Amino acid sequence: MRLLLAEDELELANALTMILKHNNYSVDAVYNGADALDWALAGNYDGILMDIMMPNGLEVLTKLREKGISTPILMLTAKGEIEDRIEGLDHGADDYLTKPFAMGELLARIRAITRRKTEFAPNLLTVGNLQLNRTNYELSSEKGSLRLGNKEYQMMEMMMSSPNRLISTEQFKAEVLKIVLR
């Protein structure tokens, strides 16, 4: 499962990324609202974890929903008042978890929101004569097939999931750089 983590506290983002990867999630971490919006629009995620206190957190949430992004979003925040939770949920969040939280609860909420995903994501992506199998990371064409590594798979999935969407050079460079730095 592929998650986008948008958290402006670098230490927390790194810790969450490590824990999520240990629990077999593929995680892309971004550290500000602008990147969160760009990555969410360009990527194909099963879930988004977003800090509401991050600069532009609610604005990003609103823009994603306005642009038709239906990916489940779990808001992570230190703002625990009822009014804050209502505001986050009314802006389009699927769930809301206040900090500090137990890691077990976070993992359970991720499982819950991703179960509710209404979009159908086929296991086989096809673009032209290329097919990408999401189950076994195999890329194939009439000339043969090749099993991709995790990073290569993520890059190919990014391109094949949005074949008619222009991915900016900056977004692609950022994705490649992130993959290389992992």
Automatic annotation (TrEMBL):
Keywords: DNA-binding, Phosphoprotein, Transcription, Transcription regulation, Two-component regulatory system. Gene3D superfamilies: 3.40.50.2300, 6.10.250.690, Winged helix-like DNA-binding domain superfamily/Winged helix DNA-binding domain. Residues 2-114 form the Response regulatory domain. One of its GO terms (biological process) is regulation of DNA-templated transcription. It comes from the Bacteria. Residues 122-182 form the OmpR/PhoB-type domain. This is Stage 0 sporulation protein A homolog.
